[in-house]
Amino acid sequence: MPGAADITVLIVDDDPVVTAALHAQVNRVSGFKVVGIAHTGQVALAAAHRFAPRLVLLDLHLPDLPGLEVAHRLRRPDQPPTDVIVISGHKESAAVRAAMQRGALYYLVKPTRAGILEQTLLRYAATVEQLGSTGRFVEQQEIDRIFRSLHLDASPRAKSISAATEQAVLDGLAAVEDDLSAYELAEAIGISRATARRYLEHLVERGQVEARLRYGPTGRPQHRYWVR
Length: 228
Prior knowledge:
Structural class: alpha/beta
Order of helices and strands: EHEHEHEHEHHHHHEE
Helix content: 40-55%
Number of helices: 9
Radius of gyration: 20 Å
Number of strands: 7
Largest sheet: 5 strands, parallel
Strand content: 15-25%
Shape: elongated
């Protein structure tokens, strides 16, 4: 049974080999739990109604219903609310556009490497957490950061870059209205200055963080960072 904080996942694909691989990959990601597997569209809809998964990993090619039709029906009022990430072998721009129009949050092309799926799930979890407070108001800057985190942060991280630390750095920058130095950020979130600098430069390269030099009356200019 999933824990209270787990994000529940339904896997929908007509290939048992694919569903077994996805099942293993998802369950290796902390905070996620597979609650159902479906090989047809009708079974997927019934499983979604029964298990109310938070997330559906959906193939577009199913034997009885098009995957996009399943995505559409998952949004009917009689179905529990769920998010959809498409995992498909289709690379045509029309397929990607149609998936977006049917409400898919993201689109992964088969075969999906475990590392890419893990990164996508972690970004999704971070987005769920950021939007989890009912009734909370968010400013445009925070909305921009949430969309960037979910949709644009898809390139593989270096092995020395931890997704959790990366998110902590982004959250630390977003928590203040002004820019921060690497030293100030390190003090704020409890990491070393060298680690803070490495993550900040990494995020600058990815376009998620801005940097500038601040010149003081004496001494060397200081790098300052803020969330775009």
